[in-house]
Amino acid sequence: MKTNEEKTCLCALGKIFGFEPKTGTALVDHLGSASEVFKLGKSELEELLGPHSRYTSLIRKSAVYDAADELEMLSRQGIGFVGWGEDEYPRLLAECPDAPLGLYIRSSTPYSQLWETEGSVSIVGTRDISSYGKEWCGRIVNALAETEERPAIVSGLALGTDICAHKAAVEAGLPTIAVMATGADSIYPYRHRDFADRICSIPGCALVTDYPPGTPPLPIHFLRRNRIIAGLSNATILVESKIKGGGMMTARLAFSYDRDLYALPGRVDDLRSQGCNSLIHSRMAEAIYSVPELIESIGLKSLKDTGSEDPLKALDSTYGDSVSPDRISQMATILTLIKNRRNITVEELAEATSLSYSRTRDLTSLLEIDGFICIDLLQRCCINVRKNR
């Protein structure tokens, strides 16, 4: 356990060496503690950092006083700070060469318990996630929830894939860690504020950042944030991504940390899958061909038979005697067609089943109302992952 003085000095150094944490941690490691850094004179700092280092003038006692005031203010807001080398600092992140000197954390759970799950999985991808990406994100998270280890889901609280992964985790009863690109005192995007507050209140969940309070959501901050997402997990899954994007950067960082990397393959002409396909082609990432294989490859033990459930049994258990056997049989046929052909339209279902359009529309509407499928504005149908786990 670090002393309050050491924690304060680590916080001060974190603000000074934010974009070059390697220099800060090397300095602390060389001197034995963060507090020793602030005991050095100008000539001693120049000898260690170089005669023209911009950091020499920033390492002064006033930085420690400012950090102490900051930590006191954050404590009143329910935000804590864990410094590099402390027992509460995540072990996996500490293994990374560019690990931050400290993390600001909002959580209702003791910080040491947040990292007890050794098999944390990061799920990242494009903000412009497709229905294909959403479906597979849900499938993957729900399968992870059915494992003995029940890993935490780590992502970045952004639009698209990130929020999809966080929400799927909460719905499945898994802990989730949201790594932010802003200070711990603000939420971006603002529309996720209520959900972020919910994360903080759930045991095992947390909001995490290495940025001090008041940090705005600038593009460069998201790039720096990605290393923490990759560093907190044994495995990273890229759901969808263009050739360039934050998800690709996180994936490449995970690969550089020698962590397991997986990517969901997609159509060659789909821009949202080109990043995933590229990683698979270059053999940086392992392709996800089935959820059971993914779970086994990550090294987790599934507690559930991963075979497909008979649609007829699933419908029987829902409707019982309230719906005629013929109607249930027709719905089972429709459900099977949708499972085998994602985004099939209601009109195409009618043609494939030889049922009238009005009959098919009534049956698909019932399936949608009862949570078996989802139908978009273009009348395209896909499986509701939560209902069909």
What does this structure look like?
With 389 residues, the chain is α/β, with parallel strands linked by helices. The chain folds into three domains: 103 residues; 185 residues, Rossmann fold; 73 residues, Winged helix-like DNA-binding domain superfamily/Winged helix DNA-binding domain (Arc Repressor Mutant, subunit A, Orthogonal Bundle), CATH 1.10.10.10. 47% of the residues lie in helices and 11% in strands. The strands form two sheets. Strands 1-2-6-5-4-3-7-8-9 form a nine-stranded mixed beta sheet, with helices on both faces. Strands 10-12-11 form a three-stranded antiparallel beta sheet. Helix 15 crosses helix 16. The longest helix is centred in the first third of the chain and has 16 residues. The radius of gyration is 24 Å and the shape is elongated.
Tell me the layout of helices and strands:
Layout: H1 4-16, H2 21-31, H3 34-37, H4 42-49, H5 61-76, E1 79-83, H6 91-94, E2 102-106, H7 111-114, E3 121-124, H8 131-145, E4 153-155, H9 161-172, E5 176-179, H10 193-201, E6 206-209, H11 219-231, E7 235-238, H12 246-256, E8 260-263, H13 274-281, E9 286-287, H14 291-298, H15 311-319, H16 325-340, E10 344-345, H17 346-353, H18 357-369, E11 373-375, E12 380-383
Parallel strand pairs: 3-4, 3-7, 4-5, 5-6, 7-8, 8-9
Antiparallel strand pairs: 1-2, 2-6, 10-12, 11-12
Features:
single chain, 389 residues, alpha/beta, Rossmann fold, Arc Repressor Mutant, subunit A, 3 domains, nine-stranded mixed sheet, 12 strands, 11% strand, elongated
In short:
By secondary structure, the protein is an alpha/beta fold. The protein contains 18 helices and 12 strands. The chain folds into 3 domains: 4-106; 114-298, 3-Layer(aba) Sandwich (Rossmann fold), CATH 3.40.50; 311-383, Orthogonal Bundle (Arc Repressor Mutant, subunit A), CATH 1.10.10.
